[in-house]
Amino acid sequence: MGIALLVQKILKSKPMRAPDFWKNRGLVSTLLLPASLFHVIGGYLRQALAKPIKVTVPVICIGNLSAGGSGKTPIARSIAETLMTKGFSPHIISRGYGGTKQGPLQVNPDIHKPTEVGDEPLMLSSTLPTWVSRDRVKGAKAAIEQGADIILLDDGFQNPKLFKDLSLIVVDNNLGFGNGRVIPAGPLRENIRSGIARADALVLMNSNNTPSNPEILSLGDIPTLHAHVEPVTEPKPELEDNPVGFQKALNRKSIFAFAAIGYPQKFYTTLQQQGAVLKDTRDFPDHHQYSRSDLTDIIKSAEALGVDHIYTTEKDYAKIPVDLRNNIHCLPIRAVWDNPNALMKLLNRLTGL
Length: 353
What we know:
Blueprint: H1 3-12, H2 27-31, H3 33-49, E1 59-63, H4 72-85, E2 90-94, E3 105-106, H5 114-117, H6 119-124, E4 130-132, H7 136-145, E5 150-154, E6 166-172, H8 192-198, E7 201-205, H9 214-217, E8 224-231, H10 247-250, E9 254-259, H11 264-273, E10 277-283, H12 292-305, E11 309-313, H13 314-317, E12 329-331, E13 333-337, H14 340-351
Parallel strand pairs: 1-5, 1-6, 2-4, 2-5, 6-7, 7-8, 9-10, 9-11, 11-12
Antiparallel strand pairs: 3-4, 8-13
C-alpha cells in the first residue's frame, strides 16, 4: 500500500481503532510525518485566522490533545453536575460524533437513536441537558434560548469558532501522548506546546497526584487538577431496568466484556479491580454502532464460555436495543476529583461560586 493510500485510510476511517504505531516512533510513523506537517499547518492557520464569537453566557471547554481515550466526557459530566448543585443550568454541547444529525438539536433519549446523535450525547442526555451541533456557535445560542446559563463543550478544543472563557485539557497519566506525533503519524490532534498555550488548566487523570509521563512532567507551570474514574457505587435511576453489578456482585464472577471506546483495556482493568474474572473480551472501533449480529454473536460466545455475566460500558449500553438489555450489564463510571477545592477555585473565576 502506498503512503498516500495509507494516509487516506487513517484519516477517513470512521470509526477507527488507534493504530499500534501511534505508541512508538517506528518506520510507519516516520513515513507519515510529511502528512502530519500538513495537519499541523492547517490547524495553525485555522486558529490564527479565526474570529471566535462570544455568546452571552460563560463557555467551558473540556477537550484533549489526543484522539480519544483521555476521559473528557466523565469530566464534562462531573463539572455539569457540580454546577447544577450550585443552582446553575449548564447545557452540554457535543459534535455528535458517529451520528447523522447536524443540529443544533437537543437530545431526547426516549426519541433519538445513537446513529442519529452519537453514543456519548445519548448517554449524557439521560441526566443532563445535552445538544448535538456541528456548528458550536449555533448550538450554544440554541441552548441559551432554552435556558442554559453555562455552556459546556464536550470536546471542541481545536474548534476556534466559539469563544471559550475557560479551556481544560484532559490527559490520561498512563496513556500520555503516545509517540508524541500529530495525526496521522501519531495520536495528537495538534502540537503539544501550541495546545497547552491556549489552555487554562490541565486535568490529569489517574495520576495519584503524581505525573509519571515525561511529556506531562515537561509541560511547565500550567495549573493542574487531578482526577480519576470510579464505578458508580449504586444504580442510577435511568439504569433500573438493568441489573447493574458493582463490587459485591462482580467479585469472583466470570465475565465476558466488550467495548467500543478509545482504549478498551481501561474498562477491562476497572472490571478486574472490582473482582471480576475476565474470560474473554471483544474490542470494537471507538463509537462503533453495533448491529444485531454483533450483539447476538457476543451473547452466543458468552453462552458458549458459560460466563456469569456480559458487561460493557455505559456509553456502549446506550446503543443496545431494549430487547437485548436483559442479556447485558453495564458498569457506569464517574469522575472523582482528588482535590475538589481546586476545581471550585477554577470555576469561581467564571461563576462566583
